Amino acid sequence: MGDRAISTYAQDRPGTSEWCDSITDICFQRYYDADLDIAWGYVFPPSPSAGEPQPDEFIGLFTGPVSAGWIGNSLGGGMRSNPLVVGWVDNEHNALLSVRFTSRFASPDPLEGPQLTLLGTSGANATHQRIVYRCQNCTVWEGGSNGIRFNETAQFGFAAHGSQKPDDVANADSSVPVHSVAGQHDFDVSSARSDSYDMALQQLQAAPPLRPPIEEDAPSPSTPAERPTGSNPSACANAPQASHAFKTGPGWVGTPVLGGLRTPRGIILDGRGNLLVIERGKGLTGHTLDSEGCVTNSKLIIDDTRLNHGIDVVGNRLVASSSDIAWAWDYNDSEMTVSNRRVLVTGMDNPGHVTRTLHISRKNPDYLVVSVGSDGNIDEASIQAESGTAQIRVFDMRTLPEDGAAYTDETYGKVLGYGLRNDVGITEDKAGNIHSIENSLDNAYRVVNGDQRDIHTDNPAEKVYNQPAGIFGGYPICYTVWEEKDFRDGDTRKKPGDWFVQDPGNSTFNDEWCEANAVKPTVLLPPHTAPLDLKFGVKSGDSNLYASLHGSWNRQPPQGYKVVAVPGQFSSSGDWSPSGSLKDTKTSAVDILANLDENDCQRGCFRPVGLVFGNDGEHLYVSSDTTGEIFLLRPGDNSGGAKTLSQTSVTFSLFLSVFIGIWLA
């Protein structure tokens, strides 16, 4: 999981059904989600005569609440290597539409070839938006599913964001915020064929756009309410309103300090306490802070759209990464400027997980730790340390060639740990030990007496590893039990923290093999919460491990979307360990920053990514990529977890429907 979309529905989704539009009387095959009040509809031309090619077009339809940020689909099911149609309405209720493509889990780019035409009845009324379009040259492509499957049940993808509009709402090719929900549905294309296709197309071509009703003597807009005095004692002057309502744990208060950023990911503080932020698709930005931790000034430090996650700085050395390359710069923290860029590590690109987390060792600052995730959900080759995927390597930056070293070059890159599916978060304890946090398997199953059981909702656990050199973390064979109830009724009984394989009948790779060969983690976290960063407490007396949980896509209901603290302790030599056994860590984590209701995050939530402590551990900064925000957490009295409501969130509560996010891969 991990660095993918937000909340995607679980397996066994229903298919489409016939739905006749009350505005046009045209009947579509439609996939509808009643919880979200969003629908995706299709009409195809009739079957061709014998010897004639399949038509290359269809009529499509998106409908949803007017408050929805955007709606989209995948014509081949998964996000990667299939055409993606994305649409929304702008501030004037005009519909915009584009078709996009990506071969990886990254923001898709506009795609040439398919031709989109907006049709009549597109737009918005007082409550709902609808986008009706004709898609030509849209049924065959290279890659992915290679085209729409006309003679069998096809897979189509759906995605949306429940509230957040694209960056440039008037530009059809604008980048869009990461979806808040996504998934796939079955689609029997033959059921969408219509002998009246040409007539329906002509009707829609002639129809006017949908417009809101004109209100005579409409009341003037009300002035937004100011934040009540004392309602948020943590707020910075001129701080942006939170995009979504949130709550903090006992002893913590919080506030946004930055908003409107472009997909903020990795964050770090330099030697002067300036906050550095990787904005995916933009570059590296720097932000000066006052004594309260609030932002006073911002600037663009590196203008490079390739930078997508990894960032670290120690002294005058700054490192950052794309999906393929890690670079270093000379860094001036008094001016927040860089110079003398050089390549450190190359050859890390794969179409699976695209983040390349970087960490400069604090104990040995000439050593760079680099994490590369798996090439897909199950990356069979990664069981070998030399694969270069699903592993963490360490490089001595003093010995690297001028043009950098390939990630898999064992002369320079020493394997710290492998069999680690997607360990996006990396940190270091006081003794210099590296700890990583893993995003585990999607769509897990267990074979019992020849019967394949779906256990993906509550297994396997996400987890934290301590990384002595050369550990094997078990992937892609061994996974860690979270919910023991899934291992009953004829199966071997398990407890949280035990190993399991998906098919224990394998004569070589079975549960016993995992016990003998894989190193167990130190901390368990809930399945599909997608942990992306971890940090140890800094101030005196704070021995917690803090983890950002980006949020689920492979379970329903969703979970995650929070920052948690796991109790632990440092030994006299600085080694960190959790308080209690591995099994005990299942219940030891405490929320310190969370959305009001993680079960409602399909409608939109903040999604924590990066963490960094400042002010000697009194300030904790948290980035949220989908909402473009940076939060500041500080110690304070919140009366047991006070709720902080954004103006936007208060507005949302007046509506019965909000909503969603991008497609499943």
List descriptors.
single chain; 665 residues; Immunoglobulin-like; Neuraminidase; 2 domains; seven-stranded mixed β-sheet; 3 helices; 48 strands; 3% helix; 37% strand; disordered C terminus
Explained architecture:
With 665 residues, this protein is mainly β. The chain folds into 2 domains: 17-206, Cellobiose dehydrogenase, cytochrome domain (Immunoglobulin-like), CATH 2.60.40; 250-635, 6 Propeller (Neuraminidase), CATH 2.120.10. Residues 1-12, 216-231 and 640-665 have low confidence and may be disordered. Helix content is 3%, strand content 37%. The strands form 11 sheets. A 7-stranded mixed β-sheet has the order 1-14-13-6-7-8-9, with no helix packed on it. Strands 2, 3, 4, 5, 10, 11 and 12 form a 7-stranded antiparallel β-sheet that branches. Strands 39-40-41-44-15-48 form a 6-stranded antiparallel β-sheet, with no helix packed on it.
Query: What structural category arises from helix and sheet content?
Result: mainly beta
- Helix percent band: under 10%
The number of distinct helices, counting runs of at least 4 residues, comes to: 3
Write out the strand line-up for the largest beta sheet, numbering strands in chain order.
Answer: 1-14-13-6-7-8-9
| Poorly predicted spans | 1-12, 216-231, 640-665
Which architecture of the largest domain per CATH? 6 Propeller
> What is the 3D shape?
globular
Radius of gyration, in angstroms, nearest whole number: 25 Å
Number of strands: 48
Quick one: CATH superfamily of the largest domain? TolB, C-terminal domain
CATH structural fold name of the largest domain: Neuraminidase
Terminus-to-terminus distance = 10 Å
Q: Indicate the mean pLDDT.
A: 89
| CATH level 1 class label of the largest domain | Mainly Beta
Largest sheet: 7 strands, mixed
Q: Which band does the percent of strand residues land in? A: 35-45%
Domain count, please report it. Answer: 2
Organism: Coprinopsis cinerea (strain Okayama-7 / 130 / ATCC MYA-4618 / FGSC 9003)
Domain Cellobiose dehydrogenase-like cytochrome: 19-198
Protein name: Cellobiose dehydrogenase
Domain Pyrroloquinoline quinone-dependent pyranose dehydrogenase beta-propeller: 247-634
